[in-house]
Write a structure and sequence with these properties.
The complex is a heterodimer of chains A (770) and B (123). Chain A has 770 residues and is mainly alpha-helical. Chain A is built from 33 helices and 8 strands. Chain A is globular. Chain B has 5 helices and no strands. Classes of the chains: A mainly alpha (770), B mainly alpha (123).
């Protein structure tokens, strides 16, 4: 079986002799890497800085375009050219990489020495294969999505266009700082930078109250996570005395902890060291939209679609995965961090999938799907598979960007219409064929149809990991169930919107933006009937830029299947080979054990309990990977068929089992009416927002009102009192300033007389004494 | 000519002109006249409303002070008093130019020389 053989390649004889080889090797490997990094701290070529500098240049140029009132597509072309150059630089960084991590310093930032301690955090970049992997898809997708946005944002040519691309470039710069920084302070800088750009771009349509509210929500929810990250960075410095990666990963104390954790003994690891991982985890949950901090991401869809695709699907939200992968050694020494990550990821995956099933806004469905897939990545991290997480990040980046951009093309062409009940048969409309086909590719990848999609391989890697890691079988079944739901809600969109009888009601986007200048659409506004949904609406099909990007992304999604086969003997695929040469490198002892199950171990595993109990890695009596192919592959097909039955149109487009003849009526409606409150609960997102409002927002608001009145009455009262006293004093003495010149003169003369009298008395007295 | 090339201090300078100190009995009338001038000036300043008269009264007080300075300088055989009076005269001259110009401006605003015309400049 192909997938089984992905893992089959674990040629690790040392593991048999030494049960803790998984950890031992990981830490040994880290020490090697760190030695290299320490030996050549500045060995990297300076042109690597281009990757960071070019987006900054783009930001500055776009700011100038805005200042000079540019009204052309030049901002877009500047951005595309600069980002494409940055991508080429990243590519040559990848090709010229010689197997040892290096740092490239831009300039000295913090260099403080006090006593025998020091705090060093330079503005420099740490390049290893994890960095390269992340930067490859960040810069590559940013270039493609900038090309897409050059057409998508053409409604707003002028100031808005410049503003969009300026923030876009700033985002790529921040992301580069986050991923490439060689210390935790650079990571934090990038972390806050991407948060800021996310805020700016969600609130791009700043005249729309919902967009402004969504931007604020994203920023505030992220702040909760950022607090965790900041405290984690602080605690790392306090405990290990450094925030630089090369020093941190070479730290002797950390290695002692890792070796202790490998034997399952956490009692000698100080609680302070264990807390670091828990705090960093909170940061990752915020940025990567995990339960309970996921609520900002669906609302973030108020931003323009290219932003949703780049920031809120492909790159920024994977920063949490990067954080945990980068600091995997620190997570390994924490007893509870990784199990919490695994369970939170699983809960998020299931919760978001159930909400996504009941939404009607296609962009929002994709948003919940993103949250759900991020849950898979976190589950993979918790299940000791950094490779599975990174592989899913990569495949997800491609197919989710593709799905968002395809939905964006629909939104763009149908004047902002996103309701799947009001659209049907889009793929058959004139000029929409490419969108239909690429959307199908994206949906198949997200659903994980067996063998023919990259999403299948990455998801399978995670699912198999759940079954071969003891104690996590429950997570495995929940994730399999979620995979079926995923296939269902994905193809629900496809069967309703893209196939079936052709029908489209335009949205009301031209009401939202006063600067829209679409001739034919404006006629609707000015029309004598005032009928917005008139029959003579003509959707405008996507142009070459949108179509090109969609085709490239669809090809990338399909071609990344091959990544599962490159170097699969050594590392379970290309992504595994990238992860293996970084701080995220970790070989789960169970992955090997699944294939050497006859060996008896009495060893305790740090995370999951005793190794070698209850024959792990069996699904229906089969090898975990073979079982997963069966279960997840059949599950995906089953989900698609269910979607076809309930939402598919009559005839072959609904695979001959659908029964929909109109755009807005399907078999699901009847069932949903009888299913009691469940569908409505799911449609209303399980009222999570309302629960948060009741237990968090409202109490906070009440407290802040109380503090407001304390401030107003007590503090302001005190300040006003101090202002009032001089006024009372002035009111008493003001009559003396009569305005009569002689009055002043008399008081002067009188004062002089008194003074002279006093002097006289003093002189007389002293004279008398003498 | 010998005297001119010597380093001359104020005491010697006074002794060149006035070989002997002025007795206190001679000083008293000077001080009395000075005090009387100052009192007249002060009373005039306090009682009159015409700004030019008030200004003249301040000048009278100035010169009373100057007279006292010169008398004391003679009494102590020191030239400081005279030097100081020269300065006071210069300042008084400059101040007179300023004050008269101010009076003219004030008159243009109110068509009156009375100080009470500006009573509204109160606190």
């Amino acid at each position: 079986m192909i997938t089984a053989s992905l893992f089959n390649s674990f040629s690790m004889p040392a593991f048999l002799a030494d049960p803790s080889a998984g950890h031992g090797e990981a830490s040994q490997h880290l020490a090697q890497l760190a030695e290299h990094a320490a030996q050549h701290p500045n060995a990297g070529p300076k042109w690597v800085l281009l990757i960071v500098l070019l987006p900054v240049l783009g930001f500055v140029l776009n700011a100038f375009y805005a200042a000079f009132g540019n009204k052309s597509k030049i901002p877009a072309w500047t951005t595309i050219a600069l980002l494409a150059t940055a991508f080429i630089a990243t590519l040559s960084m990848f090709l010229s990489y010689e197997g040892t991590p290096y740092t490239v310093q831009a300039f000295e930032w913090f260099n403080l020495h006090y006593g025998d301690k020091s705090f060093v955090a330079n503005f420099s970049f740490y390049i290893d294969k994890l960095t390269i992997l992340w930067m490859l898809f960040v810069t590559g997708l940013a270039t493609l999505i900038a090309l897409y946005a050059s057409e998508y944002m053409s409604h707003d040519i002028g100031l808005g266009y410049c503003r969009f691309f300026a923030a876009f470039c700033l985002f790529v710069f921040s992301m580069a700082c986050l991923v490439m920084g060689d210390n935790m302070l650079m990571l934090y800088l990038g972390w806050e930078g991407v948060g800021l750009c996310s805020y700016l771009l969600i609130g791009y349509f700043y005249k729309k109250p919902s967009a402004v509210a969504a931007a604020k929500k994203a920023f505030i929810v992220n702040r909760i996570g950022d607090l965790g990250l900041a405290l984690g960075v602080y605690l790392t410095f306090v405990h290990f005395g450094t925030v630089q990666y090369s020093e941190l990963f070479a730290n002797e104390t950390l290695h002692t902890y890792i070796n202790a954790a490998a034997t399952g003994d956490f009692s000698h690891i100080p609680a302070q060291a264990q807390w670091i991982a828990l705090l960093l985890m909170v940061g990752a949950f915020g940025k990567s939209a995990q339960f309970p901090l996921y609520v900002w991401l669906p609302d973030a869809m108020e931003g323009p679609t290219p932003v949703s695709a780049l920031i809120h699907a492909a790159t920024m939200v994977t920063a949490g995965v990067y954080l945990i992968a980068r600091f995997y050694p620190i997570f390994l020494v924490s007893e509870h961090a990784l199990p919490i990550v695994a369970w939170i990821g699983t809960i998020t995956a299931l919760l978001a999938a159930t909400i996504g099933m009941a939404q009607f806004d296609i962009k929002r469905i994709m948003a919940y799907s993103t949250v759900s897939q991020l849950g898979y990545m976190f589950a993979a991290l918790g299940l000791l598979s950094t490779t599975g997480a990174a592989f899913h990040v990569l495949t997800h980046a491609f197919f989710k960007a593709l799905l968002f951009l395809a939905c964006g093309a629909v939104m763009h062409g149908f004047a902002g219409q996103l309701d799947l009940r009001k659209l049907s048969g889009v793929a058959w409309m004139k000029g929409w064929g490419i969108v239909g086909v690429t959307m199908l590719v994206g949906c198949m990848n997200l659903a994980g149809l067996p063998y023919i999609t990259s999403g299948f391989y990455s998801k399978d890697m995670i699912l198999a990991e759940a079954f071969i890691t003891p104690g996590y079988r429950m997570i495995g079944w929940i994730l399999v169930f979620t995979a079926i739901l995923t296939a269902y809600y994905t193809f629900r969109v496809y069967f309703r919107v893209f196939v079936g009888p052709q029908h489209a009601e335009p949205g009301d986007e031209h009401d939202d933006h006063d600067d829209h200048a679409h001739g034919e659409e404006q006629n609707h506004d000015a029309g004598p009937h005032g009928d917005h949904h008139s029959d003579h609406f003509h959707p405008h099909a996507p142009g070459w830029a949108i179509n090109t990007v969609l085709v490239i992304l669809a090809c990338a999604s399909m071609l990344s299947i091959s990544l599962a086969y490159i170097q699969k003997a050594e590392h379970h695929g290309w992504v595994g080979s990238m992860v293996a040469e970084s701080s995220a490198s970790y070989h789960s002892p169970y992955a090997a054990e699944a294939h050497y199950a006859h060996v008896e171990h009495t060893d305790m595993h740090p995370v999951a309990g005793p190794v070698g109990t209850a024959a792990p890695g069996k699904v229906f009596g089969m090898d975990a990977h073979a079982g997963m192919i069966l279960v997840s592959g059949l599950g995906a097909i089953f989900g698609v068929l269910v979607a076809a039955y309930f939402h598919g149109p009559k005839g072959w487009q609904g695979l001959f089992i659908g029964g929909r003849t109109e755009s807005d009526k399907c078999r699901m409606d009847a069932i949903a009416r009888r299913a009691g409150p469940l569908p409505r609960l799911a449609e209303n997102k399980w009222f999570v927002d309302e629960i948060y409002a009741a237990i968090l927002v409202t109490p906070l608001r009440i407290i802040s009102h109380i503090f407001h009145w304390i401030d107003k009455l007590l503090l302001d009262g005190l300040v006003n009192l101090f202002g009032f006293l001089p006024r009372v004093f002035a009111w008493v003495i003001r009559p003396s300033q009569s305005g009569v010149l002689q009055g002043y003169a008399v008081s002067m003369a009188g004062g002089l007389a008194v003074l002279l009298f006093v002097v006289l008395v003093i002189v007389m007295n002293s004279g008398g004494a003498a | 000519m010998n005297h001119l090339v010597q380093a001359i201090d104020s005491v010697q300078l006074a002794q060149l002109a006035f070989p002997s100190e002025m007795p206190a009995t001679v000083l008293a009338p000077y001080l009395f006249v000075s005090a009387a001038m100052f009192a007249i000036g002060l009373i005039g300043f306090l009682t009159r409303k015409n700004m030019i008269i008030m200004f003249l009264c301040t000048e009278l007080m100035f010169q009373a002070a100057g007279l006292a300075l010169i008398a004391f300088g003679r009494h102590h055989l020191q030239a400081d008093g005279q030097t100081f009076v020269i300065f006071v005269l210069c300042v008084a001259a400059a101040e007179a130019a300023m004050a008269l110009a101010l009076v003219v401006l004030l008159f243009r605003h109110r068509e009156s020389l009375s100080a009470s015309a500006w009573k509204e400049l109160n606190g």
